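User: what does the whole thing look like in 3D?
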Amino acid sequence: MLDFIAGHYDYWFIILLLIIGLYGMIMKKNLVKKLIGMTIFQAAIILFYISGAIKADATVPILSDSIPNSQPENYINPLPHALMLTAIVVGVATVGVAFALLIQIYKRYNTLNEQELIERMK
Amino acid sequence: MEILQTYNSIVPFYAIIVSIIAVPLIIISGKFPNLREFWTILAALVKFGLVLSLLPGAMEGKAALYSLLEIAPGIELALKADQFGVFFALIASGLWIFTSFYSIGYVRGNDERKQTRYFASFSVCLSATIGIAFSANFLTFIVFYEILTIATYPLVIHKENKEAISAGRKYLLYTLSAGIILIAAAGLTYTYAGTLNFNPGGIFESIELSQGGATVLFLLFLTGVGVKAGIMPLHSWLPAAMAAPTPVSALLHAVAVVKSGVFGVVRIVGFIFGPEMMYNYGLNNILLAFAGVTIITASLLAFKQDNLKRRLAYSTIGHLSYIVLGVALLSPSGFAGGIFHIATHATMKITLFFCAGAIYVNLHKENISELNGIGKVMPWTMAAFTIGSLGLAGIPPINGFISKWFLGVGALQANMSIALIILVLSGLLNAGYFFPIIHRAFFREGKNLEGHKEASLLMVLPIVITAFLSLLFGLFPDLFFNFFTTAVNISNSVLGGFLR
Amino acid sequence: MIERNLPALIPLIFLASALLIPILGLWKKKLAYPLAIIATLTSASLSVYGFIYVLLNGTIRYNFSGWIPPIGIEYVYDPLSSFVVLVINFITLVVLTHSFIPVTIDLEFKQTAYYSVVMLLLTGFNGMVITGDLFNLYVFIEISSLAGYALIAVGEKKAPFAAFRYLIIGTIGASFYLLGIGYLYFMSGTLNMSDLAAIMPMIKDSPTILVALILIVVALGVKMAIFPMHGWLPDSYTYAPTSTSSLIAPIGTKVGAYAMMRILFFVFGADYFSKELPVGDLIAIFACGGIIFGSVMAIAQKELKRMLAYSSVAQIGYIGLGIGLANPFGFIGAVLHLLNHAFMKATLFFIAGNLRNKTGNSDITLFDDSYRKKYPWTMASFTIAALSMVGLPPLAGFFSKWYLVLGTIENSKWLYLAVILTSSLLNAVYFFRIIEKVYMKSPAQSKDSGTDNFEIKRDEVSASMLIPTLILAIGLIVLGLLNVVIVNQIYKMMPVGM
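Assistant: Here's the predicted 3D structure for the full assembly of 1120 residues, as structure tokens:
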């Protein structure tokens, strides 16, 4: 049992991050904090993919002369890394758009607190 | 099941679209009332002519078939002018001619607003009614049935006062709900029977349904068409709809809409379920119960109404269930009598409604208690009223007597003396709520009636003609259109060799 | 030659114009709109051609950069995706025609940016539909979502907040999707949809796949706005500018529905998610909840766009119900309703836009009789669209409901049948309320108009807004009458084994 927990420690960490992210998005009233929660959530998923790419006794997927080409199993899986590069870019774009929206919201209502906003929008 | 002989003909399609074509013409001629009315009359005459041309073929047992397009996999939007369809279409289109003339007189006499919308909607309604009459399968029926609902709405709310708008809402609530239930019923039937085609004797011949399943399906169908057919407790939209102008009440709520409802009932009983299935699952008893309760209750409620049109509305509800009762008996005379009552009730009731409208336009009176002595001022109108009332009470030689006689014989054939009792009782009640009106009109002194004369010719002439037709068809039931023989033929084709 | 490249060409035309518009727009502002229209016209024509070609000749597959699948990213242009692409591009064309005046008025100084983002949105939608790779789907979901957030945010005062809420909820959804396909990838080793479908029978009994399925369903449910993941929709549709709501409402949720259909039916397989697992029933139940919820909420609304937004939630419920039933009639109903609802909602949002253009608002409490005289064609189109939404034959809306009814009967799901029927009645309530007002309620301040001659002159919107409205409204009649032609093609779109 302990083996199971210890052996999968990275997944437990990811679950923790997911929970923190969700907590931030739902419970925090400040919009920027919600955004941060969302970013944490996305980061957790990115870490998940990276964790899944690991192989025992393998090294980073950069071509090296010391590893012959006939033994690709010595490299960890590079595909999730490539996918996550894309996902990171998507995340950056999302945060960019989100901040643009937040600036507009602030310009119009002068607050970034969700409760205040709902009051002022009435 | 009988295999109907068919021949291809585009005439049924033309009969439907004649009045649709008239609609844009009516709208454009909005500013020229005489031209606008000309289109209506022309459309009515052409429509009647087209339907009449289908009669000879129908009498020989052949049905004109025209398929428009496939509208769902395996089901076509198709028209089939069989005997029953031609029967109903003749009544509707023929009476539309009279109603159009009467409408002109009424609408101008009352100086009504939005006349263009009125005449245009009327045209669409009649198209939909003929479409219902000529539907070859249940899905086509539903299409035209729903179009009829929507097309009658502007006519119900025509006066746009509070009463009319709330009547319109009630009307839509009832009829749209019914339409939705019909869709469910059609879906179930299609899934179990594999077809929705109307076939004399039913389409379920070899399908096994559970008792519960068949009952539920039948009740769904009944609810669906029962609203328009005025079966209690789905009837209350009808008295409310009397807020519409009288020509609307006359044609639509005595002939087109409500008869579409009972037409649907007959199609369901005779052409979808079939007499064997109705009898074996006891469905005809359910129908009988509803019809009987409706007849008696409606006749009793008619007494309470002081408003003339509302009394006529309850009378209509009762008489519609005569038809339902007739088909529920599943006996040759009963079925034929019910179908024939569609024709007889139409001519009689339309006369009565026409009279009510004439009284309203002429004397601005709506309530029976105000009708003292008007017989002296409007003799022709009230004479026609008398004829209509006598017929509805079942007194010869008006045509109402014949349909009632056959219903009575049918009740005996089916060994359902309770039905006979209901018929007799209802006849007495009819007399009870009509004769006081006649008595007031002719045998009491009226007040403030000086200077009033009979209503305009445009109204009086149709009244007199329809009353005369009621008398004429009472003496010669097969005159011109073979209504009576057709009713008997339809009954035979549906019941086939069925014996209880 | 062009046929083989169609799957890539259609999204890329939009991408190219999205990049071209800002460049040319810096030079001349007036070029933005024509460029957008040209791009849409080209893509729409290619979509028509492509759809017919695929029906006659079969699926077209395109491998990006020559990498063979399942290693490379593959675009699959089969009957279903070509159909949805056709619907999207055609509706976009009509919407862009309609939007010319509203955008010129509402967004005068942002036109170039606006049209560029619209092109980006279309890139995202088209890419989502044509792609055959799960991760590529994620990328395009995000592209279209981001563009959508931006397009919504340029509306009224409350728009940025609505867009922000949509952003948060939408990103959670997309992240769930990413997590879901992560599980699928680690279990199967492939991201290619066809490949995964082939491998699925070997791995489907593991709990990981179940979790992946749930995550993906929830994620696509957010995009599709199935109850209870619909929370972003009402505010977004209401506060967005006219042109955005006309664009996103008819097609935005549909691509989500398509994605769900593609993954559930073609990757997981109808048997797996509906017979072995109760997921199909769950989707159907939630969809029914959405149908009832949306219809009831729509009745309570006083503003036209908000009412249409809740109505959309209900209508998406129908599509969800069709998916959840997972039988042929359900599938036909869902795909047909995808088409019909796109037409109906576009017409209705056009009408809201027309009214806003003329009166500055679309507040239902202010509707009255004068609308019928001032905007006769707009109101006539409204009546047709409303009757179609209620489900009156022979308009289009009736037939999608008919197939769904047959689908529920086939599976003996009487509850769903009752829901479909009840919702038709509820739809009638909120639409007829407006029809009643527009055709009958006398304007408050005028004298009681006793005759037809009361002087209210016709003041209909200009042709570029009116003609698209009429085209779509008439289209509803045509689609209704010709639905069998369409349905026969839908049979070709069904997954194998249905």
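In plain terms: DSSP finds 20 helices and three strands in chain B. The mean pLDDT of chain B is 85.
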